[in-house]
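If your schedule permits, I should be very grateful for your opinion on a structural question. What I wish to show you is a protein chain and, alongside it, a tokenised description of its three-dimensional fold. Would you kindly read the sequence against the tokens and tell me how you understand this chain to fold? Here, with my thanks, is the record as I have it:

===
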Amino acid sequence: MKFFKTVAVLCLIGFAAVSGYTLAHWVVTQEPPAFINTVIEKQLPNKNVLVLGTDESRLRSDVMMLGCLNTTTNTVDMVSIPRDTRVKLKGDWHKINNALTYGGGELACKTVQELTGIQVDTYVLIDFDAFGKIIDILGGVDFDVPQDMYYTDPTQDLKINLKKGQQHLNGDKAEQLVRFRQYKRGDEDRISVQRDFIQALFEQKLNAGIILKLPQIIGEVFDSVDTNMSMSDMVSYAGVASKLNTESLSTYQLPGAPKTIDGLSYYIADQAEVATLVEQIKNRAAAQPSPTE
């Protein structure tokens, strides 16, 4: 996989050079190559991307979000999927965060597609170290931490120590926030906080300026991201970000409820409500005009 990513990056650098620019020039002058403007104007097909957050082991997904990008209405619908969601993997019942263990990103996509009825062809697997670096590159995020957060797990080299209240979160603190799990309502509260953070990230950082930071982001997280998305697609869809605004994002949690089965704690998806949510997402995308109009 790294070989192909390396080739893709070299092709991107070569393409930028042919256009009269290099990525170094892009970073130093803050002037994106001319082809970026073409990318922004180009009508791209809709894209459903499964975002998987994990620790360095990459054995299980600690965060799972399905992002549905509609390039006609310039909207994003993001569905958070609890890590304990009960699904069948290779014929047996498991928690959905085990999909990575048994079949990597491809099996995770297949499982989420079967669970939601939404076609998922693309995944982005990112470890929390890379997540923190991206937040730092973007300058951090202002966020109201809902409670004091203290937790230590030496096996994961994880130390969480956040105070309740409004504050500026750098990459390290943002990682602590999204990984904290000690809530009264468990994953339900955890996903709610993650959704609020993503909303704050959109509101504060999603603008045309993010395109200028693309080369730095690629350089910083290159070795920490695994994806089946081509480099050209990554650049193209990054260009779509300039068309989004604070009203572009809608977030949801996969409908369902926790339940203990055979002594194990699961999250059981409500398939009828899931179907209703999917229909709601489709109707929203069809009805909402482009924010740029």
Q: What stands out?
A: The longest helix spans residues 187-205. The first strand starts at residue 47 and ends at 54.
